[in-house]
Amino acid sequence: MMFRKPPTGFVGALVGHLAAFAVMALLIAPFDASAQVRPSDEADALGIQGPPPPIAPAVINRDATGNATVRAVRLTEPIDIDGDLDESFYTTIPSITDFVQSLPIEGGVPTERTEVWITYDDANIYVSARVWDSAPESEWVANEMRRDTNQLRQNDTFGVVFDTYYDRRNGLGFYTNPLGALAEFQLTNEGSPNSDWNPIWDVRTGRFDGGWTVEMEIPFKSLRYRPGRQQVWGLQLRRAVRRKNEWNYLTALPQSVVGAGSSGVFRVSMAGTLVGLEAPPASRNLEVKPYAISGLQSRRIDATSVSNDWNADAGLDVKYGITENLTADFTFNTDFAQVEVDEQQVNLTRFSLFFPEKREFFLEGRGIFGFAQGVSGGGGGGGGPGGGGGGGTPTLFYSRQIGLQDGAPVPILGGGRITGKVGSFDIGALNIQTDDHGPGIESTNFSVLRLRRDILTRSSIGVIFENRSISTVAEGSNQAYGVDASFAFFENLNFVTYYSKTRTRGLNGNDESYRASFGYGGDTWGGQARHLLVGDDFNPEIGFVRRKGFRQSSVSGRFSPRPSIDWIRRLTFDVSVGYLERVDARILPWENAGSLESRDGRGRFQVEFENSDNFSATFNDSYENLLEDERISGANIPAGKYEFRDVQVGYTFGPQRPYSGRLSVLKGDYFTGDRTSIGFSRARIEILPQLSFEPSIQFNWINLPDQQTFDGEFNQHVARARLNYSLSPRMYVSGLVQYNSGSDSFSSNFRLRWEWAPGSEIFIVYTEDRNTEVLDRWSELSNRGLVIKVNRLLRL
């Protein structure tokens, strides 16, 4: 077994960075003093935003506007988490029953009854439910057991959201379906849901003559909350009846904030209040999670080719509670071999593609590091301009810049992170050290510090600073820093802005970026106006910038009536237009003036049906002024001005169906030729409740007659298929195969994941990449690997 040796000074640098971050956090801590001292009177003294607490034995009190205050009840008997509501307290403690429908009838009475109990003891909080359903089980939508998947959100579900700081902005959500699947998420500033947060908790479901039952057990150790034994939290409950496309909540929520239904939980400021909790002191928990890994690898794409090379390694993750609200995470000899490979994408533009982060260490707590993100509006502001020439707001912190180089992994020696909330401040600090990895990849330190302060009712301001010790484009280091603000007014009005700047030796042009966005997201009407600038030398090397040297202005509008037609839920008409001008400090200012480089205009019509299917038709009108020859989709496009239009129609089968997906057809111009595209995406076929097949395919026939090929075609096709089988909510097998004609590649990835103990997992992963651009056979091997990884969570 070989362990990588840290470079000289790494440990000292890491400890120094994290110590500085911790001292800064503790200096801010006095802001929390007011939260630690509370009178013991009723609603006003407790700061309850809603009706007064119910008087025992009542468990809920409502006011005329639909707000609710719920009383949690301490248990005096043990509870067995088995999904059977057979404990005696279910007959002695009243249940919460009066949910409020948001969709399809705002403020309506739910068509199905739901009974809920919220109880607790010294170690856990329990959420139990009797979920009545008049339909036979064969008609329920329950076809997913894997944790946190998109499909699980399309099932019949019951869930709860706790606002443990009672700041009316942030929340922790837990939900399940009739099969007992686990799903949880973090909400940051009424948006930015992070479903990759995986705390320790348990859930079991059962059946009774009138429906299904739920018992959730959530340890207080898995939650962060304010100091003090007497707790007041925010509370939202949600019930989805997917065959009816019906969404019911504890409190009355307008349709403008629930969107398609599920996003009502985002509006934490409209949640109810939970009182009566006597939580244990938030101890400074210590969690240790060692891992061991072994595998075989073959590589045949360069001079370092190997065949069936065996390797083994080990590492460690540690989580420690610094204070009640601050947590430190440390990682040593980090490994991400269990992460699923990226899904192949088609790139028909001249700019880089954006791939999502999938590595667990970087996913947890990511909402704190989000920069210039607005609050959730539910109804949306109307689409923004798209097209191949779209600008795109830079992502100031893009964690895939750490430990990855051109999609290939770079060894991470170790690092640490501090996240949490101190008073009205959200705090995030990250420090990671990577190892050297062949020519051109030196050992590098990455540091990020993020502070954000809550202001007003639903608004915030923040700052961010980033440092990369070795720049990839110049001598020396690279820094990025910025300030952002998000303001939410009334129910659906928002304003988001930021200013950021970078510093890189040798880049002396415009190194700043800023944006202002004003939006209204009502249910019937919506609109947005934005202005964005990205300098030609704006270079955040721990971020992602799709395009540089431009100034973009865009405006969009939306009209979404809900007609009185039984089979139609909503019609949407939206239009948008965006202009992008060149801004280049290397040329004279008057040469920039009026230098239109891209223009995008779009009109869209959509019909959302009552069964959640939808039909859409979109018209795009685009303009591109190429200042130099560009290589796009494998073709050399000469400099010049191009105008092209296209029309796209699509039909989406509701995701709650046994078969679902989006079928689309596009036809139109493409630079000097034309383009025809047919796609079938987000598809899913339910074979069994535990077995599903997810095909996806996109054909792009591109004809450029002036290009020198046999037939003038530069086609780009991508096919993908995934097969999932769940043995239980804690164990599944999945396989992913992909083909990309643009890169002449075929890949496969097969994974088994088993959570054999709470927070402890076994992974078996097989990956293979093949090159299909060979003459004498269909493909040849590029890479192949088999990995077995085991970890164990120890809570001390």
From the alpha carbons, calculate the radius of gyration and give it in angstroms. Answer: 27 Å
Question: Helices and strands: which structural class?
Answer: mainly beta
Average pLDDT confidence is 87
Largest sheet: 24 strands, antiparallel, barrel
Instruction: Count every helix, treating DSSP H or I runs of 4 or more residues as helices.
Output: 8
Number of strands: 44
Helix content: under 10%
Net shape: globular
Q: Unreliable segments (pLDDT under 50, ≥5 consecutive)?
A: 1-16, 18-40, 376-389
How would you describe this structure in keywords?
single chain; mainly beta; ten-stranded mixed β-sheet; 44 strands; 6% helix; globular
Quick take:
The chain has 796 residues and is mainly beta. Helices cover 6% and strands 50% of the residues. The chain starts with 9 loop residues before the first helix and ends with a strand.
